[in-house]
């Protein structure tokens, strides 16, 4: 079993927590991470792009000139793709980009991403994270205490993982650039890799420990 220190909001060590090696101690697999991240991004695409073919462009119903004896090339419509203002040939049309990836592969990729963060010292665990009221200054103060925000010239992207939804934390963090809040059961490989630091509470660690089991609620998105 691996171990990581548990901090309080003032960056004082208050204990340690054991981390399962099959969730936080895996060897990096770039091929698996790449496959799952590409799948996630593809599933986010709306696919609403569309161009007009010659049949969709308004006008052009009349033949511009007769077929023969004009000395000009023959044309049947001014909305031909050859004409300015005409239709588009082989342009993009609405489509669904989503596709499925095996459930076991998604879980393995998420565990691998968490392992990468742990091995890179980009994972911080706090005993608890609560606010009495929504206030961005309080979240900034906590992140500064934990030395997570970095310098003014190099803003870090931080993912805060909670065991359950906390409106005060969500409302306080949504105005801070680069800081995102997610429930432990909703984390996915892309979010973990797309942030420089991952801040998890002890309760969130308990939920994430089930990633090697058959719990339904921790399936990757």
Word description of this protein:
By secondary structure, the protein is α/β, with parallel strands linked by helices. It folds into two domains: 2-45 and 98-218, Ribosomal protein L4/L1 (Ribosomal Protein L4, Chain: A), CATH 3.40.1370; 46-96, no CATH class. It has seven helices and six strands, in the order E-E-H-H-H-E-H-E-H-E-H-E-H. Strands 2-1-3-6-4-5 form a six-stranded mixed β-sheet. Helix 4 (136-145) packs across helix 5. The radius of gyration is 26 Å and the shape is elongated. The two termini are 27 Å apart.
Radius of gyration: 26 Å
Strand content: 5-15%
CATH topology of the largest domain: Ribosomal Protein L4, Chain: A
What order do the helices and strands follow?
A: EEHHHEHEHEHEH
Instruction: Give the integer mean of the pLDDT values.
Output: 91
Number of helices: 7
Domain unit count: 2
